[in-house]
Amino acid sequence: MQEETGCGCMIVLTPGLYISVSLYNYSSCVSSVSQALANIPSVSESTLRRDIADSGISLDASIQISVLDEAARVHPDTWWWIKADGVDLVSGLGESVRGVWSGDVDLADGSLKKAYDAHQTRLMFVKRIGVETRSDSSIILKDLMMLEQLVVEDLKHISACITVKAKHYEEKQAAGKTSEKQMFGLAWDVEELGRINESGRQLVVESRAMTDKLRDPAYDKVSENFPRKLSSFREQAVQFLKKSMKFKRTPATHVLVVMISPEERNKKPYALPVQCVAYHSLKDEAVRSLVNSMIKEMTSRGMKVAGFVTDGEWNSLRSKGRECPLSIFEIRAQVRRKYTRLSVKTMTDMLTPKELSGGLIQALHPNPAVSQDILKKVYTCLSEEECSMEDVIVRLRQRTVPSGYDYHMDFW
């Protein structure tokens, strides 16, 4: 049903669902409906967040179990491909006003959560100095000394960061190829680290001053307004720990999206994202570990895995499987890498037989890759046919060529 409304129209799709359509030209209101621009309002941000929370999808780097369960239920008999691709990630603030981290490297190994929990423990320790059960002077003295150690350790890390960042800035400036925006970011890091370093040193001075006063038996905390000074000191210490922690974290620059796709690919969406891993640099071994974990989760639900596909960022995944090479070319490459490191004499001794007692044959340099059958043939050629070692090697190479093909020396 369609109802004309001036220069536009209202299209009713289903009872209670309306789409407002704006037309290019009022004069062609009826004849140009196919050229209309549909303006469909989306749900609010709060509704979207609530829907995501109700779906069971987690916001960390873990595998989305609910997606795998639903895929296994809907397509119980199909074969599934695992696909992975990396996308760029724009750096953000890194921490919300509620203290929630975002944008960190998270390889789903638990290290990020461990660092976050340790950071929250340090902040909670600082916030409790001189509060409630820790308001006794002796306890405050111990807490201040412990806090001073934490600040000194962070100052060492900040000093090292200043050296690295300043050197990096000078190198980029000398090269003259970096954009103005990037140079501004590098300069700001050096400036921010300098301010953090200065505030940390000030904290150490204030902490030692307060500990000296608390050691004095004649010191009156009430008349000296010590609680207010301690409250201000706690706030400064919390801000210092938060800012210094920023340079201990590793910001992610890319996100690895791991998806699963049914073999038929006859219905959208063709691929379902089941894991998002934020990373800065990712080695082949790490990707292989993530894929193996995914395969384990899928097979435990009865899902049949056809294979893994990527567009080439991790080269060894294309040539080496989980337990063995994927092609004869990779086998040949591995053999070459292994044996080109050996000398000619060592390899010759591997093929040079000697007769032991009892008629047994053994190489001068035994190698499990050279079988007894090969050694016996070499022994026969050398002793009975009086061939040279070079002729023996040529014969051995000819045996590896399938029947019907010609042996070419230049191939080797």
Describe this structure in words.
The protein is of the alpha+beta class and 412 residues long. It has 4 domains: 2-41, no CATH class; 47-89 and 253-319, no CATH class; 111-246; 342-411, no CATH class. It contains 12 helices and 10 strands. It has helices at residues 45-55, 65-74, 111-127, 137-175, 180-215, 226-246, 284-299, 316-319, 328-339, 344-351, 372-383, 389-399; strands at residues 2-5, 8-14, 17-22, 37-39, 79-88, 254-262, 272-279, 304-309, 353-355, 361-363. Strand 1 and strand 2 form a beta hairpin. The longest helix is centred in the middle third of the chain and has 39 residues, at 137-175. The radius of gyration is 35 Å and the shape is elongated. The model is unreliable at 1-33 (pLDDT under 50).
